[in-house]
Design brief:
single chain, 363 residues, alpha/beta, eight-stranded parallel barrel, 9 strands, 13% strand
């Protein structure tokens, strides 16, 4: 697999390639259809402004996050873009049979040859009861512990290389390499590169050991970012995929035309997170609702702590914050997630960030 299917190109004055993580957020008074229309607009904007890749993340049972089916959304985005890399950030592998994921992403690769990423996580992407419903099993910890074995099985399905005597030797993921071995068969030279995602050290070490690219969820696990990246780099062994480590970090960032508006928007996103973490997930509230909300002292402390890790403000402030984060972490790529109530606010934020870094403008 060519390294340029992983490594991006830096544009403008950005310190590293910039990418997009889309949670397909649904605001109060909006529908999932509205959110998905925003995703199409945002993917087009990202492509036209030189962002390297566009990922969507698997979540379940969360009214304010309409990304329960990454492969379906990515197929839709593939029909509306031509160049930008599309991928999962990520698919929660323990929720699925590896063969199903190999088939889904083989299909996506056939739709958008050479621009599909397969990012994998070992968490459920939801609460325990929902995870049990997805997996038809209560053995959630066991599923997570089985992740390396599931990953190995998925990789063999993608490469169609189970050894002789294996029970799956004659089972093939289609679309996939088996088509090239059929009479008259021609197969794409591309195979979706696998990324491992994590918010702690487990996947960091595994990605390093296997020589795979690694994506860390700084946007919700900031205290673990540097230890995990250090562990990944220390554990790294060159592979056919990479000759040296490549790590991106997910970053929560929101730019607005003035600092006050940015603060209003991230306050609403923080209130949404409070409700999620207290077992009351809902739609993303409006800034007006957040401003009127009677935060308790404990909730106010959470807001302050949460928003300390959200890079927000004017375009210049956001650029400075992203530059500083890059210097502190040495990340090879910054993947920006901008959560807000309104799609127009999210689109404007990415436009302002692109302008702040002098990214390419549409012809």
């Amino acid at each position: 697999m060519a390294a340029d299917e992983i490594r991006g190109t830096t544009h403008g004055t950005a310190p590293v390639p910039l990418s997009v993580l889309d949670l397909v957020t649904v605001g109060a008074g909006r529908t999932a259809s509205d959110a998905l229309r925003t995703s199409v607009e945002l993917s087009r904007l990202a492509e036209s402004r030189g962002f390297h890749r566009y990922w969507v993340a698997e979540h379940h049972s969360m009214p304010g996050v309409a990304s329960s089916s990454p492969a379906v959304i990515l197929a839709h985005l593939a029909a509306h873009t031509t160049r930008i890399r599309l991928g999962s950030g990520g698919v929660m592998l323990p929720n699925h049979a590896p063969l199903v994921i190999a088939e889904q992403f083989g299909t996506l690769e056939a739709m958008a040859p050479g621009r599909v990423d397969l990012g994998l996580g070992r968490a459920p992407g939801t609460d325990g009861a929902t995870a049990a419903a997805l997996r038809r099993s209560d053995r959630l910890n066991e599923s997570a512990d089985d992740f390396p074995q599931q990953l190995a099985e998925l990789t063999r399905f993608l490469d169609d290389d189970f050894p002789d005597g294996h029970p799956y030797r004659r089972v093939h993921a289609v679309p996939g390499p088996v088509q090239a071995t059929s009479p008259g068969g021609v197969q794409s030279p591309h195979r979706p590169p696998i990324w491992l995602l994590g918010s702690s050290g487990f996947s960091a070490r595994l990605a390093g050991t296997l020589g795979l690219p690694f994506a860390f969820a700084h946007h919700f696990s900031a205290q673990n970012t540097i230890p995990a990246l250090d562990l990944y780099r220390q554990s790294f062994r060159p592979s056919e995929v990479l000759d040296e480590p490549y790590a991106l970090i997910g970053v929560a960032a929101l730019a607005a035309d003035d600092e006050k508006e940015a603060r209003r928007q991230v306050l609403a996103a923080a209130l949404s997170m409070i409700r999620l973490r207290s077992g009351r997930p809902g739609l993303v509230p409006t800034p007006e609702e957040a401003e009127a909300y009677p935060f308790s002292p404990v909730e106010r402390d959470f807001v302050d702590s949460w928003n300390a890790n959200v890079v927000h403000g004017t375009p210049d402030e956001v650029r400075a914050g992203l530059d500083d984060l890059h210097k502190r972490t040495g990340a090879d790529e910054l993947m920006i997630t901008g959560n807000a109530h309104g799609g127009d606010v999210r689109l404007r934020s990415y436009e302002l960030i692109a302008d702040a870094y002098g990214l390419p403008t549409p012809a």
